[in-house]
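Consider the record:
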Amino acid sequence: MESASVFIDGVKQTSDVTKELRYQIGRAQARQFYADEKIMDNATFDSISWLDLRSLLSKRPKMYQLWFSKQCSGFCGTGQMITRWDKEASSNCPNCGCFETADHLNRCNNRIRRELLRESILDLQTWLVKHCSHPELCIWIPRYLSGQGRRLFVDLVHPDGRTMSQQMRKIGNAVDKIGWRHFTEGKLPLSLKLLQHQHLLSQHTQITIDIWMKGLIDQLLTLTHTQWICRNLTKHHKTMGTKALTARDEIQKEVEKQLSMGFSDLPSTSRCLLEISPEQLFGMGTSEKQYWLNAAEAARTAANNALHISEGQSNSWSEVMKTPTYKARAEQRQQSTSTLPPDDTSKVKSDAPNKPSKAPNKPPKAPKRRRTQSQSNETTLPGTTGGITDRIELLRRNNPIENTQVSIGSLLAQPTNQASASDLDLRFRHSAESVEFASFKTLNPGLWIKGDVINAFVTLNYYYYLGLSVRCVVIEAAAEASWSLSW
């Protein structure tokens, strides 16, 4: 005889009680929540066969369970919820254009969605017939689902004039209290389960009521999940989705706007954009159109900035940088930033204890550098071809403010044979731009590893080796626009 036993909701627990205990606590909280939110009253909540729904979901993947919980709670990724964190997103259904909520999923009137719903209902009807279902259930459940919630279960009319039995009408009344949406989410009344159980007992079949209930719930959840997949494909398809089509239309409008503005106000270095005909441009993909659009906008911005700085004299940066006004401004700016702030490290506190004086500081020794075989064969004298050059004096300055104000014209200019000597192994050649690894050890990383220095090498590579192309125009125009904004 057992000395003690544990019962939860009238069921004796023969194993770990935590799983059943969590379920009963969650069920009680859900029951209270449904009543507080006026989703359904306690009597309707208790009339649902929750155990069959739980038994089916326990065999499904975790992501499927997550989708089901979000759909039932209304927090799935519909337009209503997306606009709560993305104010620019559309709250409309991607298929029919109506305001999209979780309740709208199976009620969408789009032709494709309605056809998909009809096919799902036919599959469910076929399943009912094959699994020895009650004859009235085979008739009224498909008709109830086809109405998309516009008609109550008890008000359904058969085209042949058939009427419901009193038992079936009671089941229909229980279904109407639950609601059409909850019914499509697998929340079936216990009275329906009882009717089918009695029918199975009168038939020569091995199908149990538990298997039948899980099968019917699975068919209903498949119907709902199919609508969700169709909705997502319509909206998120890479080429034919509504988001892709909307982005494509916006880019098309911007391209047409740029073409209507013309390119007469652009410098000659940006006229390569005209080499692409409108017919060829409109036939490009979305990414290619976006690339051309970025190039056009960058070139136009750079031209406008050049006109502003030159006071309307020229829209070409190569000509603007030759003007005396531009040179004077550049020299004035360079002189204003050449003075370094005083060093405060030499100050000592007055209350610091006196320490014995040390010997006068000796000049620091230059770090020894290992000479490789390739370095010993290369000359470093000024004026020699292939020697060490630093034509924009990028590595001679120790002030980071000066490094950010390098002349773009000097940066993009073609190197000459008259190269100035530098203390570091920065070699600019027509074939390649390289930095010796040992040079990084002699440089302060805070002055060297910066975006403007890295962008300088990237710009040089594109400028020298890609020629006049759209990509070159984007880099040059973006650099010029950035330079002009610093004035």
In short: The two ends are 94 Å apart (CA to CA).
